[in-house]
Amino acid sequence: MTNEPAPDPTNTDVGVGPYPQPWPEDPRFDPALLADGDRRNVIDRYRYWRMDAIVDDLDARRTRIAPARLQVAIQNWQHDFNIGSIVRTANAFNVELVHIIGNRRWNRRGAMVTDRYLHVVHRPDEQALAEYCSSERLTMIGVDNLPGSVPLESTPLPQACCLVFGSEGPGLTEAMVARCQQLVAITQYGSTRSFNAGAAAAIAMYQWTLSHASAARLEP
């Protein structure tokens, strides 16, 4: 079984219905989804696939762009709704790993179940993340409009990096800033002081893909 929420049989506008007989023999397909239809929020490529088969395929697609590696870290101090949104965006860009820093429990509502197709890990504090990134040779890039930050749009991002985001409002902690090798900020032209954290994360991940992830968009 997929462990997904049961599809609503009256909702014919989302996803696809039962697969016509004869069913494909590919083991990646889930018999329950073939029989009942697939109402999940997945791209057409993964319709009717088992969840573990989707994760395996996503992992394989990430290895195709090595040594380019993108991971994301999110500080979780306020049960911020934006965390789920950032996780959902990380899924869209097929990020290698998502780190939740601080509180183990995080607000999953905005993730829209996409966290089940990602590798999400917990780190207790800033030092634990820094030690992991050092061991993996990932450059920690803080995304926040703090003094000393440089424009994201004109700054080359490392091929192997971990983009680090703070909670909505307070942003990155001083301890996290001290462990980042660089700070970048998104140039703004209006009156607001800062971007929504979820929007900023989406812009930063997309900026990285412009240089390093073109192969990830190719079909095998």
From TrEMBL:
Q: Would the keyword Glycoprotein turn up in this protein's UniProt record?
A: no
Domain tRNA/rRNA methyltransferase SpoU type, first and last residues per copy: 70-206
Q: Which Pfam families has this protein been placed in?
A: SpoU_methylase
Which GO biological process categories is it annotated with? Answer: methylation; RNA processing
Query: Which residues lie within the region annotated Disordered?
Result: 1-30
Query: Polar residues compositional bias: what residue ranges?
Result: 1-13
**Keywords, in A-Z order:** Methyltransferase, Transferase
Question: What would be an example GO MF term here?
Answer: RNA binding
- Alphabetized InterPro entries for the sequence: Alpha/beta_knot_MTases, rRNA_Methyltransferase, SpoU_MeTrfase, tRNA_m1G_MTases_N
Q: What's the protein name?
A: RNA methyltransferase
Tell me which species this is from. Brooklawnia propionicigenes
